[in-house]
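User: Envelope glycoprotein, Toxocara canis:
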Amino acid sequence: MLVIGHAATNMLQPTILKFIFIHGHWKSDLVSKRIKLECPPKPFCELIHCYFCLTFIENPHCAPKGALILLGFIIYLSLSIIYLLFTILRVIIACSYTCSRLIILCSLQGVQYIIRRIINLRSSSPPERKHRYFRSALRKTGALIVIAIPLSYACSISTLLQASQSSCLQYENGSLECILTTSARLMVAPQGQQSCLLLKDMNSKPLGTLTIQLKKIALRCKKKSLYFTRSFQMAVASSKRCSAAGSCSGNKCTDITIDTKLPEFEKYVNDAPGFTYCTESCGCAACGCFLCDSACLFYRTYARPTSEKIYEVFSCPSWEYLFEAIINIRITGKESEQHIAHLIAGLPYEWNRLKITLIAISQPPIPLLTAKFISDEERIVQIDAAAPGQAVATMIGKMQCANRDDAQKFNCFLPKDICTCQPRETVAARQCEEQLLEHLFTLKEHILPLETHDILLKETDKTVEAQFKHSMTLEAQVDLQGFQISTIADKNTCEVTEASISGCYNCLSGALITASSKSSFGTGGAHVECDQLQFSLICEVNPKANKVIIHYDRAKFQKTCSVHCPGGKTNFHLEGILNYIDAERLSNISNIVAEIRNTERRSFDLSFFFEFFKFNIISTTSIILVVFVCLTTCHVCIRKYFFCVKFHQKRTFRNFR
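Assistant: Predicted structure for Envelope glycoprotein:
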């Protein structure tokens, strides 16, 4: 039973963009209930509940006053530590100086005393003048040594190429019937826009319009199963046998191979995927053997399943194109006819007197389509896995099973280097890799659906489907009987009435541009350029929000963008501040990825950090002045303290002399 109460609400980890949680509940290995929960986005700054943390420092715009106070505290603390270190160093040098001076003076006094005694022994009445000169020279020499020490919608523009052919049929009664067939090749407008054709009679008089609008552009994976795998952990079984006992006879270890099944091990150990080894061990009574001959240490590394779940690793060596188009024919004086066509590349689709054939498809390189995937029959995750037959101990797919039955029986292949063993006297110590795949299906960064700025990768009928937005270009041939064809394009202009940007920079999820665009009439597509950044918008008479995902590497986005339409160019200003989210934190809450992955840690935009405080110059200057006054006060106190210490040292030194 599933009970949902309202007494307590736990806030899930949100992202900047909208995402979906799907929770599965099982009973007796059957899915009893599934809940789908859509969580709306939440402002990122409301998720920061700490002040002395890296997230707060990386996003100072979330709380400007707190950031300024924290900046002052950090400056004060840093300078205090530096000042304290220099002070300690100064004390050490001063103490070393004083001690060295005392040692040298004591040594000089001792030498002076010895020399004086020698002179007194040789001469009962030494000249006082020489004695004074000698003693003065010693003092000057000692002083020099001491001194020297500290120094050291509407119609989009379409390219058209057309040809007409008239074919006539003569009947037995002498009548003649001619049919005009017009063929046209045109570039189909991107998804969401319309390609319009003007229909004319044989006298070139307009009769109506034909519109073609792509509703769906997708690729469906033709799945190729690479292998099956399971979650497992490695274990080691050891058995020491004395000479001539059990398997330790004859050639002993020479006859043992990695596939040998020894009676010294349990049946489940021998049947599990693994490797058998043998090494010599000590004999004699001291080692528990009767014969003083080398004993045998048998050990086998084997895999133990940690769950009953079977996973399939597959790739998509080829993709099937799926196109869905809305065809609308409007003839003057007649009702319009609308039809949804499912198009297949290279195959003509016929409806009424119309025939459409997709003859050319162009798409940019998408590395994501070459990836490998893993499935637990319910969910699909994009992974980087080992190639079939080439199991690597450090990659997903280190255990490979030929089919599902073998995986069920745990009859699978392991790489030999999955374990490193160190034989000891009676046991073998091991260090092994393990494969626990359950955690992969908790990583929002890799589990389907995955989205980039122009493609959505999702699960459909237990396979992968890639839906395109704007990047694919199509060329189609349209054959129509009884009409001539001309293209129609609306010469409209497009104006962005409202635009905003939010999200994060230097992150996999990217930033979200929300722009409302209005056309002068009709519906059409607009091409937007913001310096090197380019994307497309749909313009309508009644503005609707367009959402575009981009990837940016700076915290502050401030650009003047141009909107290109058939009727001309307009400009708009887009400005916003993006948040910084570390890749490790983002991977726990996001399911949007970039086309090109980078495993290196993404850098924090320090320029925005300093620019933020530059525009808050009054507050920043006040904080720096407060820090300066505090440091000056501390400096004066410390100087007075050391003055007292120095004065005390001088008095001690004077009394010593």
